């Protein structure tokens, strides 16, 4: 999640430089054909092009709205994970009549769960967004692609860790282990049957929250909207320089001969500017489709996991607490 109020131009150019360079060359090439080779027939009426532009703008607006809904739902889910994590720790400390070690095991295993879930959600899929090399280089040093159980290694016993190595869904089995531990405590008389039901209610909600995350992760944004939004945008920007020629051509008739060459040259920067605006609007929606990929606009799960860890370990009265996650290149992961 980008945390500065204003996005720096360095980051903007990482995303846009290839498109801007292409638009400059493309518009300059069309201008050269028209102006230097006198291909005056290549211009097209701007009126139908403006209709296409309006339609594309509405289509992009719909896509961006739905993409943001996916991000906001993901953020609300992780807000629920934060709240239920605190509830879990409070119940452990209040209900379990055992030594401090047992309480620590239950709370640290929960920390293993949130970190395992975080890593699982950040694994790439067949429909994951692919950026240009400049952007990917920025994320490469921050991305978390290690096995999910590795993120849990420091919070659980070696025996439990090696058992998780054999599992397909690490987070699911960590919650299962919590349930088995609660049952054991109930059988030993260290919690009451009523306490057990309360614990299992929280575990059920954790499964619900995990399932909601997996639903967003494993269900791509409908490709008919995502793909054709890109197609329509590029049809518009590729036709735009031809329509610009028509607009400038009609204006030239009212200008002096000295102004004409400089005036029509403005077709290039204006065409590049409009093209960049439309492709950027389309790109914003694409970057918000999948909120768990660990990119600029995604849910900052690493920071949220660290916040939960600090809160729960503080509730255990541990002294050496980790520091909050700091943004890297103004991006909070």
Query: How far is it from the N-terminal to the C-terminal residue, by CA?
Result: 6 Å
User: With helices defined by DSSP (H or I, 4 residues minimum), what is the helix count?
Assistant: 11
Helix content: 55-70%
Give me the count of strands. 0
As residue ranges, the low-confidence spans are: none
Instruction: Please state the average pLDDT score.
Output: 84
Percent strand: under 5%
What is the 3D form? elongated
Radius of gyration: 27 Å
Q: Spell the H/E element sequence.
A: HHHHHHHHHHH
Note the main sheet: none
Structural class: mainly alpha
Helix and strand topology:
Elements: H1 9-35, H2 46-95, H3 100-121, H4 133-140, H5 158-164, H6 170-187, H7 193-218, H8 223-252, H9 260-265, H10 267-288, H11 301-315
Helix pairs in contact: 1-8, 1-10, 2-3, 2-7, 2-8, 2-10, 2-11, 3-6, 3-11, 6-7, 8-10
Attribute tags:
mainly alpha; 333 residues; 11 helices
């Amino acid at each position: 999640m980008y945390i500065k109020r204003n996005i720096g131009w360095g980051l903007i150019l990482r995303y846009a430089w290839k498109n801007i360079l292409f638009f400059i060359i493309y518009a300059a090439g069309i201008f050269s054909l028209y102006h230097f080779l006198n291909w005056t027939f290549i211009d097209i009426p701007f009126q139908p092009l403006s209709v296409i532009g309006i339609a594309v703008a509405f289509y992009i607006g719909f896509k961006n709205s739905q993409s943001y809904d996916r991000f906001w739902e993901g953020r609300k889910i992780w807000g629920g994970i934060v709240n239920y994590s605190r509830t879990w720790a409070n119940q452990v400390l209040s209900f379990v009549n055992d030594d401090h070690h047992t309480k620590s095991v239950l709370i640290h295993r929960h920390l293993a769960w949130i970190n395992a879930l975080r890593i699982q959600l950040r694994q790439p899929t067949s429909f994951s967004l692919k950026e240009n090399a400049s952007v990917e280089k920025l994320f490469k040093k921050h991305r978390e692609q290690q096995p999910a159980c590795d993120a849990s290694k420091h919070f659980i016993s070696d025996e439990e860790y090696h058992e998780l190595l054999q599992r397909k869904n690490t987070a699911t089995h960590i919650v299962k282990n919590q349930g088995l531990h609660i049952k054991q405590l109930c059988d030993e008389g260290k919690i009451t049957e009523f306490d057990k039901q309360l614990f299992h209610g929280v575990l059920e909600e954790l499964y619900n929250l995990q399932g909601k995350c997996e639903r967003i992760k494993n269900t791509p944004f409908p490709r008919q909207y995502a793909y054709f939004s890109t197609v329509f945008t590029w049809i518009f920007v590729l036709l735009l320089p031809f329509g610009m020629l028509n607009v400038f051509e009609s204006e030239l008739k009212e200008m002096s001969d000295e102004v004409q060459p400089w005036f029509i040259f403005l077709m290039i920067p204006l065409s590049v500017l409009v093209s960049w605006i439309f492709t950027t609007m389309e790109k914003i929606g694409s970057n918000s489709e999948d909120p768990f990929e660990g990119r600029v606009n995604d849910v900052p799960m690493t920071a949220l996991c660290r916040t939960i860890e600090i809160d729960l370990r503080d509730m255990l009265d541990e002294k050496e607490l980790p520091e909050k996650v700091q943004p890297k290149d103004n991006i909070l992961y």
